[in-house]
Structure formats: structure tokens, C-alpha cells
Write a structure and sequence with these properties.
single chain; alpha/beta; Rossmann fold; two-stranded antiparallel ribbon; 6 helices; 9 strands; binds S-adenosylmethionine
Length: 220
């Protein structure tokens, strides 16, 4: 895995890891994956020098690559074990999907914008990471491979999409920002049994909207 590592931004990358630790991120697998994955490969050329700032940055199609703290926080909350089947909604740049694959998860990721779907696919190939990706409305999940040990939604939802709850394995966790289009609260939903779910509500974040049948419509 160390083959991903590029020394160009070494100091910035180490500083980012220190800052994430200071902010309370203590999952060593998450920190290790962030420390070896070159974020500069996932951002637009104009922003390469800002790759290791702890901020969201623009990518194609008016979308964003999430802030490293947000990525680290959500990934920690997923509590990924090697071999877990994880579904991501909102592939975007492909950065989050690559982190999960480095952590040993079997990754399934869905994107609704064709350009991002294709660009992220070529990054997965470049890094030789086995990631299953699909161009579709992720609010409906990916039933064929369900159930998932974890589902991570990296766009802002108005409510929890039912298909995602249904596609969670018992004991599995769904991490999803819920709110309006301005700001959202992170929900961590654990499936306790066939019928029961436990809900933990955490901090406030800001994401681009989740657009789809069980999300926001394209024009509101
Ligand atoms: N996880 C991404 C990364 O690592 O770069 C960042 C995701 S970006 C904040 C949100 C993404 O969700 C956008 O690429 C957007 O097109 C996508 N999206 C929005 N609604 C979607 C839906 N219903 N299904 C799939 N993707 C969706």
C-alpha cells in the first residue's frame, strides 16, 4: 500500500494527520489510510497546492471533495473491519472509496453524475484498487449486493432513504448527514434487528445535496 505514497506533500500530509488527531480522530486504520493516499490526485489542478488543508475543495460538476476531518470522522463512525462490505453513496472524486478499499473493505460506490463516475473509475484503475462503482441514483441503494456492514452517504439528505435502511446488515451502521440544504446533522444509525434501529445524532456538517428519488428533487 505504501506505493501510493508520494513524498511531495510529506510535511503537509503529516501536519494534517497531527491536526486530525488533535480534533479527536483516533482510529489508526483511518489515519494510516489518509496518510498514504495522495489527496492531490483527487482535486482539480488549480487546488493541488491546497490538497492538505483541512477544507472541502471543488471538483468537477460543481461538486466537492469533502473536508479531511469530515471524511475521517464519518469513516471512523463506520467502524470498518477488514472484509466488510461497504456501500458509499456519492463517489465524487473517488477519494473516500479509495480510503475504504485501503482499509480492506469490499467497496461498492454509486455516483449520479456521469463525468465523476468515469473520472473516479480511472483513478481506481490507476491505484489498482478493486472498487465496484455504478452510475445510478444512490438513494435506492444497490440491492444486488446487499446487505452491507456499512453505508456512508456523502451528500446531504432531507431524510433517511428507506432502501438504505433495508439494505443494512444486522449490526451494520449507516452514516448520513440529514438536514436542509444549508447545514446538516450527522446521524449514525445501527441496525439492531430485522425491525429495530438505534439512532445516534452527532455534530453539524455541510454537504452538497443528495439528489434522487429518496433525496432532494433536482429543482428544489
Ligand atoms: N465522497 C466524495 C469524495 O470522496 O470525493 C465526495 C462526495 S460529494 C460531497 C457528493 C457527491 O454525491 C457528488 O459527487 C454528487 O454528484 C453525488 N450525489 C448526489 N446525489 C446522489 C445520488 N442520488 N446518487 C449518487 N450520487 C449522488
Amino acid at each position: 500500500m505504501n506505493s501510493f505514497y508520494s513524498s511531495k506533500f510529506k510535511e503537509q500530509r503529516l501536519k494534517l494527520i497531527r491536526d486530525l488527531r488533535k480534533r479527536g480522530i483516533d482510529d489508526e486504520n483511518v489515519l494510516y489510510a489518509i496518510s498514504i493516499l495522495p489527496r492531490e490526485k483527487f482535486v482539480l489542478p488549480t487546488f493541488v497546492n491546497r490538497s492538505y488543508e483541512d477544507v472541502a475543495l471543488p471538483i468537477d460538476c460543481n461538486q466537492t471533495i469533502s473536508q479531511p476531518y469530515t471524511v475521517a470522522y464519518m469513516t471512523s463512525e463506520l467502524k470498518v473491519n477488514k472484509g466488510d462490505k461497504i456501500l458509499e453513496i456519492g463517489t465524487g472524486s473517488g477519494y473516500q472509496a479509495c480510503l475504504l478499499a485501503i482499509m480492506g473493505a469490499k467497496v461498492f460506490t454509486i455516483e449520479r453524475m456521469q463525468e465523476l463516475y468515469e473520472k473516479s473509475k480511472s483513478i481506481f484503475n490507476e491505484f489498482r484498487l478493486q472498487i465496484n462503482s455504478r452510475l445510478a441514483d444512490g438513494t435506492l441503494g444497490w440491492k444486488e449486493f446487499a446487505p452491507y456492514n456499512g453505508i456512508i452517504v456523502t451528500a446531504a439528505a432531507p431524510k433517511v432513504p428507506n432502501p438504505l435502511k433495508e439494505q443494512l446488515a444486522i449490526g451494520g451502521r449507516l452514516v448520513i448527514p440529514i438536514g436542509d440544504k444549508i447545514s446538516q446533522t450527522m446521524y449514525i444509525i445501527t441496525r439492531i434487528s430485522e425491525e429495530e434501529y438505534n439512532e445516534k445524532v452527532s455534530d453539524r456538517f455541510k454537504f452538497v445535496p443528495l439528489i434522487g428519488k429518496e433525496g432532494w428533487s433536482n429543482n428544489n
